[in-house]
Amino acid sequence: MGRMTTTAADSASGHGNTPTDGRPAGTGPGGNGGPAPEPTDENVWLEEIYGEEQLAWVKEQNSRTEDLLEDADYAELEGSILEVLDSTDRIAMVGKRGDWYYNFWKDRENPKGLWRRTTWESYCTDSPEWDVLLDVDALAATEGEEWVFHGATFLRPAAGEPYRHALLALSPDGGDANRYREFDVESRTFVDPAAGGFDLPTAKGNVSWLDADTLLVSSTADGLPKTASSYARTGVTLERGGTLAAAPRLFEVPEHHMMAVVAHDSTPGFERTFAVDYIDFFNRTTLVLRDGSWVAIDVPTDVNVSAHREWLLFRPQRDWALDGTTYPAGALLAANFEDYLAGGRDLVVLFTPDAHTSLQSWSWTRNFLLLNLLRDVSSEIRVLDPSRPADAADGSFGDGSAWAPTLLDACPPLHDVNAYAVDDEDDSAADGGAGDDFWLVATGFTTPSTLMRGTLERGRDDAGTPGVVSRHTEVKSSPSFFSDAEYEVQQHFAVSDDGTRVPYFQVSSHNLPLDGQNPTQLSGYGGFEVSRTPAYSGTVGRAWLERRTTGLELDGGEAPHSRGGVYVVANIRGGGEYGPAWHRAALQENRHKAYEDFAAVARDLISRGVTSRERLGCVGGSNGGLLVGNMLTRYPELFRAVSCGVPLLDMRRYTKLSAGHSWIAEYGDPDVAEQWEYIRTFSPYHLLKDGIEYPETFIWTATSDDRVGPVQARKMAARMLAMGIPNVWFHEALEGGHAGASDNRQAAALQARSQHFLWKALAGGTS
């Protein structure tokens, strides 16, 4: 199709115009030494999320967008995506509690889902027999509430007893606020509050079992105070039959900190109660309750701490100087828990990062520690044995690990593979004792996900070398949802403005013609130390790779044959692909480096002949929405189309909207004049200018998103429409939370709109 067009008359907001003084909309002198001024904002009225006039505007914009996108091709695409999401052949991932394996499942017949369980023997069959504990669709129909299931927290039973009671987290709209209700898995019923059953009002927060009749609760319900980030400021002790309002305060943090969390570790022999003062996203203080008083674990606030049995683990976000030794950011260190609290500082190094390798996560089995690493964004897994010190033979890793490491042979190149414990506390005879069993989940862009289960034990490998021996076998595999054998995955490196090499993955058909005419979708995130790794997506395969152009006009005439889409994932700074240093390189005043990296990948795709400006689009959500919003406003010459989801865009007021205050550590504080001076350079809402040819733009969000919120998306679309910028489209799902969807049907519609918009803009036709 040709370009999608609209005019200022389509806006219909009638609430003011953009400034006409020649500056980017809404900007002005920042000044120093005082609070930053509030730029003119003609769309503040849209910040009332559930106002009648505001929702009328939303519905009008939804209607025009649906009229554009929901054609016959869209209907077919949405049905194809829904078929993937509803497939009964997907892997039903499980978590073990006692002798049962629990799963939450959605499909066409159960759009809100089933919480269910089965035995290991049954799970290993092609058609497990599931014991359904809760039908969320039936619950929603009975109670007249659109419940969204957000997980279960079990009470540890007495020795020899089965797991029976759990707190279920249920969101009324898919947002982050949950209602916690006690559930009995044996009777398959909620425990009646009149009989003392726990039933906590809907709010943001967390809960933890202290014992059978006591909860530790961090909540904003019943008048409990909130932080400026909208999260819980206190932790309380809630007795069965009591109320949150009357519950004794156990822990409290300052209002300007991000949130308070209290939790109990019920591991037999290592029972401990913890509190965490989350100062911001990257700084926290962890405390343990001793003799009725809180004792802080003495580390810098940017050192992440976790406890497991007798061990404390530390992962510093910045280099940590301690007693004459400097431990690098991204390392993993260990100490004996009690010795460290008593003042000992005998730390052992378990992992040291290098220029290519970073630690992503770790998991304890009963006797071993699994490290999930990335080496140039491909997975590597090591198993450490705390009982055996490393020796010279273990030096091949070059990171000086104090515990003997063994490489787990399970990671093909350009794949994402993660290992984690099945049940580190299971030493029973049943199941053969699963304490050292682990799950292994492997996936790649063209490799359907596979679930394996393995066992670790001390022994010797085939060469007779002592170490940890692993046996793992396949349990389940996901089906192929597209012709994945017809596509190949390549990794390339672009060079950013400051010379940094930035990796990216390219998924395309074999023998891709490098003539610059391939419709290409570039995706990224670049924030909060989140890594974008290879992952199989039936949606991307069907909605992008397998779609075919028809009659695509090239410079030399008609295309000689139809072609499919190219899918690209950029591993830009701000993410966690190379550890904390990669993240910190794009924080606050250095945020522009993430955008320079993404633009460098776009230029590299164009220079290599993969695509051209007319065939290149980008997509991102949340922080990724801010990323592509900056592509729209800072690099419009590189992209034909932008799909911007649940985004941050108004960086002057983001701290005042939803949970935005909690992200100051990532972006900076716009209320501080000196910080607003750099924040304004990546605030898309304030970078819009008259006379610029902007890419075709689709902005999408959800009314019930209580994390980022729908406000910034609304205001950006309204400003662009009022400026008369053509080809601007907006859609707001009326439920679904930050994910934009609370069931598979909504998820399919959301993904179909984004994918169809990009295809129409970049490919000019479908088949």
From TrEMBL:
<feature type="domain" description="Peptidase S9A N-terminal">
    <location>
        <begin position="41"/>
        <end position="228"/>
    </location>
</feature>
<feature type="region of interest" description="Disordered">
    <location>
        <begin position="455"/>
        <end position="475"/>
    </location>
</feature>
<dbReference type="GO" id="GO:0004252">
    <property type="term" value="F:serine-type endopeptidase activity"/>
</dbReference>
<dbReference type="InterPro" id="IPR002470">
    <property type="entry name" value="Peptidase_S9A"/>
</dbReference>
<dbReference type="InterPro" id="IPR051167">
    <property type="entry name" value="Prolyl_oligopep/macrocyclase"/>
</dbReference>
<dbReference type="GO" id="GO:0006508">
    <property type="term" value="P:proteolysis"/>
</dbReference>
<dbReference type="GO" id="GO:0005829">
    <property type="term" value="C:cytosol"/>
</dbReference>
<dbReference type="GO" id="GO:0070012">
    <property type="term" value="F:oligopeptidase activity"/>
</dbReference>
<dbReference type="InterPro" id="IPR029058">
    <property type="entry name" value="AB_hydrolase_fold"/>
</dbReference>
<feature type="region of interest" description="Disordered">
    <location>
        <begin position="1"/>
        <end position="42"/>
    </location>
</feature>
<feature type="compositionally biased region" description="Gly residues">
    <location>
        <begin position="25"/>
        <end position="34"/>
    </location>
</feature>
<keyword id="KW-0645">Protease</keyword>
<dbReference type="Pfam" id="PF02897">
    <property type="entry name" value="Peptidase_S9_N"/>
</dbReference>
<feature type="domain" description="Peptidase S9 prolyl oligopeptidase catalytic">
    <location>
        <begin position="562"/>
        <end position="763"/>
    </location>
</feature>
<feature type="compositionally biased region" description="Polar residues">
    <location>
        <begin position="1"/>
        <end position="17"/>
    </location>
</feature>
<keyword id="KW-0720">Serine protease</keyword>
<dbReference type="Pfam" id="PF00326">
    <property type="entry name" value="Peptidase_S9"/>
</dbReference>
<protein>
    <submittedName>
        <fullName>Peptidase S9 prolyl oligopeptidase active site domain protein</fullName>
    </submittedName>
</protein>
<keyword id="KW-0378">Hydrolase</keyword>
<dbReference type="InterPro" id="IPR001375">
    <property type="entry name" value="Peptidase_S9_cat"/>
</dbReference>
<dbReference type="InterPro" id="IPR023302">
    <property type="entry name" value="Pept_S9A_N"/>
</dbReference>
